[in-house]
Amino acid sequence: MFVLGIDGGGTKTIGVLCDHHGRVYSRAVVGPTNPNSLGYDRVETEIQKLLDSIREQTPDCFAKVTSFFAGMSGGDREEDKRRMSGLFQQYLPKGCQVQVDHDAVNALYSGTLGKPGVVHISGTGSITFGIRAQNIRTRVGGWGFLLGDPGSGYSIGHRAVKAIFDEFDGIGEKTILTSFILNHFHLGHVPGLIPIIYDMKKAREILASLSRFVFLAAEQGDHVAKQILYKAGQEMAMSIRALILKLHQDEPNHETIPVVLAGGIFHKADWFVPVIEEILQFDHLQTKLILPELPPVAGSVIAALQQAGVNITDSFIHSFKQEAS
């Protein structure tokens, strides 16, 4: 049996053709595919490139694909799911089962292996998403950088720049973030940052990229940087806590709830895990934090296999990890 999974993001889109044993036969990467920011014409162009590439690599396997799942950034509204499903069906084998969902499902399943649970994603932006039994689901956050994206790379970078200006104005602590970030932009004075951070077409990505200097400064003992990361951990934890209470407010959950921590910010998870564990203390609920060993696109493959009625085994996980490495 062959399935195809897609992880469609705001930066890039990855597709993998795989069998039920976890063997990867073809893989392709194209540009972003979020219809909210690009429009459907541009999205269709990228999707066609992706699926053409996968088909050309292994045409015989592609022709036998029976189940397809795409977790797409901007794919949470039912109208978007229907439209995206129709777009994909044009390029897939006849009779293939097609499902489109939010890209948070990919990240969740990469940690829970297709089981219900909660995922908090912190990359450039952030969102907390959860599914419980009977496919009941909800979300917290993910409303975009203008509303804060708490615990995200953008939020961390934004606080770093704010700390630099606070030091410059004499109302904040000294911080080595100032020298790190000024040197990065080859600047000699703090006000020189203004035209860079107010380039509204790039501001979100620029500020998010500065989060790496916060980790570097914190590792060198900078108090301001450590406080920024602690605050980010608190924000992550409060989002997760709020989602768990929303998701299970009308039925106490007697099983441990898996909480997947996904996204680039968690490459430095040690800065956040202690505060998250501290805040995720409930009287009647137990949680378990998971740092996924599989990439998000593996979550889309798992969803495609589940749609076809296939159980996920340890051998699948082992094989996929080897193929993806």
From TrEMBL:
Residues 4-301 form the ATPase BadF/BadG/BcrA/BcrD type domain. Pfam families: BcrAD_BadFG (PF01869). Signal peptide: none annotated. It comes from the Bacteria. CDD domains: ASKHA_NBD_eukNAGK-like. This is ATPase BadF/BadG/BcrA/BcrD type domain-containing protein.
